[in-house]
Amino acid sequence: MEKRSIKALVLKAFNTYPAIGELELPALNEGMAEIEVKAVALNRRDFYITQGLYPGVEFPVVLGSDVSGIYNDKEVILNPNINWGANEAVQSDAYHILGMPSWGGMAQYVQVAKDRIYPKPAHLTLEEASALPLAGLTAFRAIKTKGNCKAGEKVLINGIGGGVATFAFQFALAMGAEVYVTSGSDEKLNKALQMGAKGTANYKAENWHKQLAKDSGGFDLIIDSAGGKGFANLAKLCRPAARVVFYGGTRGKIEGLSPQILFWRQVTVMGTTMGSDKDFEDMLAFVNSHKIKPVIDSVLDWKESNQAFEILKASSQMGKVVLRVGE
Amino acid sequence: MEKRSIKALVLKAFNTYPAIGELELPALNEGMAEIEVKAVALNRRDFYITQGLYPGVEFPVVLGSDVSGIYNDKEVILNPNINWGANEAVQSDAYHILGMPSWGGMAQYVQVAKDRIYPKPAHLTLEEASALPLAGLTAFRAIKTKGNCKAGEKVLINGIGGGVATFAFQFALAMGAEVYVTSGSDEKLNKALQMGAKGTANYKAENWHKQLAKDSGGFDLIIDSAGGKGFANLAKLCRPAARVVFYGGTRGKIEGLSPQILFWRQVTVMGTTMGSDKDFEDMLAFVNSHKIKPVIDSVLDWKESNQAFEILKASSQMGKVVLRVGE
After folding, report:
1. ipTM value of the model?
2. Cβ pair A74, A9 in contact under 8 A
3. Residue B313, number of CB atoms within 10 A of its CB
């Protein structure tokens, strides 16, 4: 295909949101394919990039790591990994994620390597499917590849609501675990109870972790993305041989963490980010076999993308925020 | 055997050291055996117990977890584990360590379950062999069972000198790793260089970790027992997919630890303490096949036990402090 003009949500400067504009799509390189985008889901990463919190941004840029669309008349989704590399344990130095620096899915068309294209799960709409890739991948590696979640185990998802945490919650339930969740929002906690949570705790309450320890008897597996001072309380909630897996640190540096609790209980703490291509395929197979439906907070037209970014800024969502890409 | 009077180093109160006195050894229960003690090595645990830092002490008590001696005319050493349990991942609630609450090896005789008795490694003297059990077990689980040390990997032993750290150093060398060590003592660093360390750093120097990062290129496996504020620097020394294993926290709570470094590099942090009976047998087999000789800081007569405790108090030792048990 020759280079040609398309419409896209174009980000031109930090501390602005992307706006619909025209961009020239380059000629297609060998091994690459062009997908007609139907829906694109937002990630915290997208908001952070607009705030200048990621290195290496060159304007104009098209964000969007989570894409569903049409390729060769078939409905597809994309693996957002680029150059993970051969080591399952960690991404290579050449690793990056679709949607910065390489242009992503907030556009009518996106160019990706052909091996990034996967059939859309048949039980999902295109909008639901777009919610899956990045958050589903991160959650699956956290809960399964690293966390080794097993049926009957007690699992805590610390901070329900975000895309990864919500998938981790759903995956753990589907694996037969007893899953507890925390949030600062009672509304999110109630939603989680409706979805099958065994118990909840509002971390704005004083001594919430002591009450949760009583209610639950402690946890075999804890998933976190906050870090900060609260992380030390998670250690206190660990049962012997527990695993703590974290994929973020929104509350900053970990403080006041007792080595004694961790070594005496033989706890393992694992950092994780994204996942390998094998993780992606395992996640897709799991989603297909368990008919997991992503929790969608809202679906907006891409002309309303400012509103979508504002939801992420406020962290008010329960599940994913999806944009329909159109004319 | 009927109960009878023996000599032992008896601890009668906190903030004192044990002194030689007479004790009545109870009649031998079924499944138990009586070992004639020849040598007993000290551990930090013994010093901490004298300082009242362990719960559950009942006076009088005989300390000593590391024992070599004679059983049925054969030279033997003892596995210090009591009731580890069936789970390799973590000790049971009934777990304890020989030498408090059950009487240990700082005595002419010690009673243990028969399955705690193992042949002394043939390449070691009784004094050397007594240095092995507790520290060797802890180090082997840290470096191998949990740390999965592999030939060619870069390993950092943070704080060389103590028994566990010194065994971890020797085991990692025998596994073919490139091993670096830190200490606050240049004398200990020089000793480690003579033993085969690839490089060293004195952690009293400013920005020691930056220099060590340059020298080493970072580490695949880090062994620590300090915790505290310095732990955050260890995270900075991690290569992608590194493992950090810690078995102590002498510097207190972990502070200022960056979640971002750990999750982006996919680092795993593992607490560990002691080791399973399988770990003990694997450690013994490794020591026998590699002819590992424990590093002995000093061998003293048990009449000089005060001096031995003072060495532990000052943390001035390089390797183990051993008492010869006699008349």
Report:
1. 0.95
2. no
3. 13
| Tokens 């963490």, residue located | A257
Total count of residues recorded for chain B = 327
**Nearest-CA neighbor of A271 among B243, B228, B232?**
B243
For residue B275, give the chain A residue with the closest CA: A266
For chain B, the structural domain boundaries read 4-132+294-324, 137-271
Top residue of B263, B269, B279 to mutate, by most chain A CBs within 10 Å, is B263
Sign of CA dihedral A220, A223, A227, A233: negative
Nearest to A266 among B89, B265, B266 (CB): B89
Q: What CATH superfamily is the domain A4-132+294-324?
A: Medium-chain alcohol dehydrogenases, catalytic domain (3.90.180.10)
| CA angle (A248, A254, A256) in 5-degree steps | 155
Q: Is the peptide bond before A60 cis (omega within 30 degrees of 0)?
A: yes
Pairing of strands A19-25, A4-10: antiparallel
pLDDT along chain B (327 residues), means of 10: 88 97 94 97 96 94 98 98 98 97 96 98 98 98 98 97 95 98 96 98 95 97 97 97 97 98 98 98 98 97 97 91 95
Quick one: B52 exposed, middle or buried, by C-beta within 10 A (0-12, 13-18, 19+)? exposed
Cα separation, A273 vs A270, in Å, equals: 10
Alpha carbon of B262: minimum distance to chain A alpha carbons (Å): 5
Peptide bond into A121 cis (omega under 30): no
Cβ of residue A229 closer than 8 Å to a chain B Cβ:
no
Best mutation site among B262, B265, B274 for testing chain A: the one with the most A CBs within 10 Å? B262
pLDDT value of position B32: 96
Q: Is A193 on the interface with B (CB under 8 A)?
A: no
C-alpha B241: how far from chain center: 26
- B137-271 belongs to CATH 3.40.50.720: yes
Give phi and psi for A101, each to the nearest 5. Answer: -70, -30
pLDDT tens sequence across A72-100: 999 999 999 999 999 999 999 999 999 99
pTM above 0.90, yes or no: yes
CB B157 within 8 A of CB B181: yes
Best B219, B266, B276 member to test A by mutation, with max A CBs in 10 Å, is B266
How many whole angstroms separate alpha carbon B295 and alpha carbon B293?
Answer: 6
pLDDT of res. A327 = 84
- The packing angle between helices A163-174 and A186-195, to 10°, is 30
3-state secondary structure at position B178: strand
Q: How far apart are CA B254 and CA A307, in angstroms?
A: 40
Residue A270 carries which DSSP code?
A: E
Chain A environment of B263 (Cβ under 8 Å): 246-249, 271-273
A196-255 tens-digit pLDDT? 999 999 999 999 999 999 999 999 999 999 999 999 999 999 999 999 999 999 999 999
Dihedral sign, CA of B57, B312, B191, B302?
negative
Closest Cα of chain B to A144: distance in Å? Answer: 15
